[in-house]
Amino acid sequence: MAKIYATGRRKSAIAKVWLEVGKGEMDINGLSLDVWLGGHEAIKKRVKQPLEVSKQLESVNIKATTLGGGYSAQADALRHGISRALVNYDEQFRAVLKPFGLLTRDARRVERKKYGRKKARRSGQFSKR
Question: Are 89 and 22 in contact, with CB atoms under 8 Å apart?
Fold first, then answer.
């Protein structure tokens, strides 16, 4: 069976995911998941969620490349990409993954900074005198 490709996105992060039949190995940017995310157990669990929900944790290998954003946004982009790859692999996974919101692209982005303000909405400190 050939590799299945999918793209996941979150904020300004992009994850390119290749999924193939295997024994549960994860390779992200040339590193294992544990090395790539270090001690961030909650984020690791979030990345593995689509595989746990679809019961494919031990039966598919994942090779991914992430770029842009921070490690948390990259992890969420990876999660989105894995979910999409699983649906491309077997259409029946859509019914399993959709109720968990794993196929929905989180469209929230950072609001742009406006002129005359310190940040997007924060104004300068008020001075009475």
Answer: no
Could you tell me where the beta strands, DSSP code E, fall in the chain?
Answer: 4-10, 13-21, 26-28, 31-32, 60-67
| % of the chain exceeding 90 in pLDDT | 92
Compute the distance between CA of residue 94 and CA of residue 85 in angstroms, rounded to an integer.
10
First-residue to last-residue Cα distance in the chain: 73
Q: How many residues are given for the chain?
A: 129
CATH number among 3.20.20.60, 3.40.30.10, 3.30.230.10, 3.30.70.3040, domain 4-100: 3.30.230.10
Looking at residue 2, what is its pLDDT? 83
Q: What is the pLDDT of residues 56-77, one digit of tens each?
A: 999 999 999 999 999 999 999 9
